[in-house]
Amino acid sequence: MIDVLIIGSGAAGLTTALEAKKNSKNVVVLSKTYPTSSQTSQAQGGINGILGNSKDTIQNHINDTQKSAHGIGNIDTINYMCENSKETIQWLDDIGVPFSRDENNNIAQRKLGGAKNPRACYSSDYTGLKILHSLYDNCLKEDIEFINEHMLLNFIIQENEVKGIHCLDIENSEVVQVLAKTVVIASGGYSGLYNGFTTNSTATTGESISAALRAGCELSNMEYIQFHPTALKGSCTLISESARGEGGHLVTKDEKRFVDELLPRDVVARAIYDKIQNNDQVYLDLRHLGLEKIKETMPQEYDLALEFSGLYLDKDLIPIQPAAHYTMGGIKTNLNGETNIKNLYAVGECSSNGVHGANRLGGNSLLEVITFGKLIGKNASLQSLNISAQSLDSEYESYSLAKNNIDSIFALPNTKNFYEYKKRLGEIFYKDVGLFRDEESLELVSSQVLKIKDDIKYMGVTDKSKIYNTNLKEFIEFENAIELYEVIVKSALSRKESRGAHYRIDYKDENRDFDKQTIVKKVQNNITLEFV
Amino acid sequence: MASINICEKNYDVEDIELKVDNLLSILLNIKASKNGSLAFRSGCRSGVCGSCAVTVNGVEKLACKTKINENDIVKPLKAHKVIKDLVVDLSNQDKFLKLSLAQLEEKSDKIVTKQDEKNIDIQSNCILCNSCFSSCPVYEVNEDFLGPFALTRVSRYVKDIKENNIKNKIDAVQNNGVWDCTLCGNCNMVCPAKIDIKNDIMQLRNKSVQFGYNDPNMDNFNSGFDTNLDFGFNPNQF
Question: A87 CB contacts (<8 Å, ≥6 apart)?
Fold first, then answer.
């Protein structure tokens, strides 16, 4: 029987697996895609670490992280992450991550926005990619089992305890039951819901978070979505913060600067969005830096601008727009990664343990997934030692429900095209549940979401075959997304203040009454919300 | 309107789409509005996740980074079993990486310098898109060939100062490995990460010789050059 089942194969999932394998024999990673396809591959900037060889201190890192969290961070998780950063970086270096070195053969570090000192360790321009592949090579070495291209449908819960999952085998559309002593959700965030306006992968659709909500998990701070200021206009390909860090300017049509480019991401993103709303266009201007410096400090950005916009960073103004980039909200956990369901854990971007609060600091995301991946891998594997194996023959009631659900999707009339609604919801959310929010628009969005939810019965799939049916997979993602859209808009409506990444035009100030987490639960099909 | 061909089926695409959009955007549009059953993989949309490799007019490309033209022919990767449309079976990937020991086995305590990291910088940018595998002619005759991505990854760890156990890796790439490559360089041409895979394989051959291995192909030379030997496939014409 599986001791630790991990849903998701990004850096959080693979780190959890490697750590769990130290105590448990049977560790399995279930992936919707393939391990090296995950969102982690896109992390460019770096991973924060206090390595003890500069004047930077753990306390500085804690202070910067707390400041960015705007009063709704969790001091215990922030302390744990910051105090363990050296060990995390050392571990990655030891398992083979080729961190760039400085002239003194120390791991090189650079300064990202919101940090007092150069703190982000990096691997040339591809930190996330290289971390992800190093983790993957280690997983193969440790014989960790992968179940690829299987999408989570539901958790099996009995008496508030997780027993396993039901998932869809994408290759043949069959429902598969996987039982496990402990389950760790490491499935990534939900920025993909801002379809067409996100830097994220097409796979970052958040269905595991919806499944957790249905299973009885609490979600927290779901209204907190970070918008990156500089995505290429149109494709939303990310141009890293290093472009501004190295001295890039943001200018309007008449080539005038309008904002201090090094202010926090949310402030810069709002300033850009405001200009675009007023029929201006905003450009990233790096021309004054010269080709040599651009090629040396941001080769990947140079290539991306050329490949995705056909423009040269050293010669052209680059049209940009803010895009949904990272989700601070997610499945509520404590420091140990435990959810409110027994033996069910969450780690990484899908989770919300208070380490980012109202806004995430650059370089803290990779640090979070590795540091907590290690902790939760250990916790889940040790916990699995206390649990006796269930009979693998037991077929849970939810298995036939899940199978019937797939059959019923094939039977839907498909008179309305769900892809059109997917696109429309991306547009609506970018516009009205994006950088600026207000009661009237949010109420309108809320009713639109409910209307679309009601219309699902008219949607469906055109592909009725069972072989590698991505039409079916995407429809299930869409059904799950509707639940999250509902939660996000409800959370954004309820937080009647502005704080970090959540900005309300009608409540522009931070309000001490909201120094709390937004907690959402599903009770008998209704979503309840409270501030705790 | 222009026509493009995807998996033996023609689709009409607006001229402006061809001009502005990459192939992946066009595939996503076709799926959303014209053919919901069209199957392809996609991910990051920015060339680093390795999901969307296909062939365009027979040449391996990442769909997210490729503009296409009227009458272009889009097909799945070669040398793989096709599951559906542009989706191919990748289940061999783990097998080849495991067999070739493409991993850090025994950590050394040597100091890592700036140059040491630069030595493996490009090799460690591999995104496992399988383009190289698709372009490799050796698979047509030997399906057990460890192949370009696995060998380049071995080379990355052989060159890594952090690795103490180089011999194990060299041992692992002798059968169906470095000597089976024809050095045709197809993989170099199609690698989106611009890795010089052919050079990596040649370096692995040199290392193999240092560890006492010989080129098994040379064993055939026992009767000298005057017998008019046929070497078969030799795209480099040497």
Answer: none
Structural domain includes residue A391: no
Residue at A224: amino acid letter = Y
Which positions in chain A touch B46 (Cβ < 8 Å)? 42, 237-238, 304, 308
Q: Are residues A313 and A168 in the same domain?
A: no
Of the candidates A423, A360, A261, the residue with the CA atom closest to the CA atom of residue A43: A360
Residue of A9, A126, A129, A236 for testing the chain B interface, max B β-carbons within 10 Å? A129
Query: What string of DSSP letters covers B87-150?
Result: EE--THHHHHHHHTT-S--SB--PPPPHHHHHHTTTGGG-----HHHHH-GGGGT-TT---HHH
For A6-20, A115-129, B139-153, B180-194, which range has the lowest pLDDT when averaged over its residues?
A115-129
Q: Which domain holds residue A510?
A: 397-531
Cβ within 8 Å of residue B35, ≥6 positions away: A462, B9, B11
Nearest C-alpha in B relative to A231 = B46
Average pLDDT of each block of 10 consecutive residues along chain A (532 residues)? 97 98 97 96 92 94 96 98 98 97 94 85 91 98 97 96 97 97 98 97 97 98 97 91 87 95 90 95 96 85 88 96 98 98 98 97 96 98 93 82 96 97 98 98 98 98 97 98 98 98 98 97 95 97
CB neighbour burial string for A484-509, b if at least 16 within 10 angstroms, e if fewer: bbbbbbbbbbebebbbbbbbbeebee
- The distance of B91 to chain A (nearest Cα, Å) reads 9
Give the global pTM: 0.96
Please, what CATH class does the domain formed by B2-88 belong to? alpha beta
Contacting B residues, span 171-230, partner chain A, CB-CB under 8 Å: none
What total number of domains does chain A contain? 3
ipTM of the complex: 0.95
- Looking up residue A234, the CATH number of its domain turns out to be 3.90.700.10
Domain contains A29: yes
Mean pLDDT of the region B157-175: 97
Question: Do B46 and A237 count as a contact with CB atoms less than 8 A apart?
Answer: yes
- What pLDDT is attached to residue A56? 95
Residue B137 in contact with residue B184, Cβ under 8 Å?
Answer: yes
Q: What are the φ/ψ torsions at residue B132 (nearest 5 degrees)?
A: -60, -45
Q: What share of chain A is helix, strand, coil (3-state, %, to 5)?
A: 40, 20, 40
Decide if A110 is catalytic. Answer: no
Note whether A374 and A521 are same-domain residues: no
Q: What is the DSSP string of A506-517?
A: TB-S--GGG-S-
CB contact (8 A) between residue B114 and residue A234: no
For residues A405 and A397, what is the distance between their CA atoms, to the nearest angstrom? 13
Distance, CA of B222 to CA of B105 (rounded, Å): 38
Contact between B44 and B64 under an 8 Å Cβ cutoff? The reply is yes
**Residue count (chain B):** 238
Among candidate residues B203, B234, B29, the one with its CA nearest the CA of residue B138: B234
Lookup: tokens for A395: 């077929």
Say which of A265, A270, A360, A437 is annotated catalytic.
Answer: A265
